[in-house]
Amino acid sequence: MTVALFPAAGRGRRVGANKNKILLNLAGEPILLHTLRKFAKSNMVDYFIIIVAEREIEEVAEILKNENLPPYKIIAGGKERQYSVENGLKSLPKDTDIVLVHDAARPFVSVDTIEKVIDTAKKYGAAIAAVPEKNTVKTVENGIVTATPKRENLWAAATPQGFKSEILIRAYEKARADNFLGTDDASLAERIGVPVHIAEDTYDNFKITSKSDLKIAEFIMRGEKL
């Protein structure tokens, strides 16, 4: 069984909202719905776990009640994204083979990317959606550039990130034992020595984190309907 976790327990402050950004409307419907529908289009994803703030569980249940989705559950998250995913891992069905973790605020992920991540995770154990970095990136200390890494070696990580369930559970157990907070799920797998493979993504799969992102997303949705 392949299970998709959607950590979405944060607030929408950077978007300028006073509630969870995944509940904000995009083309007239919550961002969350657009994201879940993409995963529902893949017959390779068997089960959803949607992770939101406890106070939002009833609202999300109401939003999803008439949706044609795979079997799912809605659970409460934690103060940090990592703690929300950890709660999701504790709720996995016993026959889970592959776990996907996807930012619920990335509604433009493609079905092709989702399935490439699943296939790569099945083959190698750990995989992330990522794209080659287009910009020149600098390392900086105290406001001064210290290095310019070779762009051909740089990839921008996104989600979904996929793992054999035992690998991700072990990575999270180690992070908990070490009181370590990572920047993404792959960073936890890297810490326990698991090679993480790339599943090449598209540049459309951006995360809605700011007001300008939301405006761009609205523009894209209008364009898709023309």
Could you describe the 3D structure shown?
The model has no long low-confidence stretch (mean pLDDT 93). Helix 5 packs across helix 6. Strands 5-4-1-6-10-7-11 form a 7-stranded mixed sheet, with helices on both faces. A two-stranded antiparallel sheet has the order 2-3. The protein has a two-stranded antiparallel ribbon with strand order 8-9. It is of the alpha/beta class. It is 35% helix and 23% strand. The chain has one domain: Spore Coat Polysaccharide Biosynthesis Protein SpsA, Chain A (Alpha-Beta Complex). The longest helix is centred in the last third of the chain and has 15 residues, at 211-225. The protein is built from 7 helices and 11 strands. The chain has helices at 31-40, 57-64, 81-90, 111-124, 165-178, 185-191, 211-225, and strands at 2-7, 25-26, 29-30, 47-52, 72-76, 98-101, 126-132, 139-141, 144-147, 155-164, 197-200.
